[in-house]
Amino acid sequence: MEHHPAAAWLTEAASSAVQQQGPGNLLRIVLIVMVVGCALTGWFLLRGYKQKDD
Fold first, then answer.
1. Assessment of whether the complete model's pTM goes beyond 0.90
2. What is the pLDDT of residues 9-35, one digit of tens each?
3. CA 36 to each of CA 3, 18, 21, 25, 31: distance values in angstroms, whole numbers, following the listed order
4. Where do transmembrane segments lie in this chain (predicted)?
5. Beta carbons of 18 and 26 less than 8 angstroms apart
6. Cβ-based neighbours of 42, under 8 Å, separated by 6 or more
7. C-alpha span between 51 and 22 (Å, rounded)
8. pLDDT tens-digit profile of 35-52?
9. DSSP class of residue 47?
């Protein structure tokens, strides 16, 4: 597996957040991303069911 320097800042930020504050901030970010992802997925799937009154 090759190392991607562009993604290194993400792992560095995550590891420093875990070391400084514990898992609280990291879990909070993961939960927010999951909720936003679910909302966007629901919107994408349900937008095709809109009824057109022409």
1. no
2. 667 776 766 666 667 888 999 999 999
3. 29, 22, 23, 17, 9
4. 26-46
5. yes
6. none
7. 48
8. 999 999 999 998 877 766
9. G
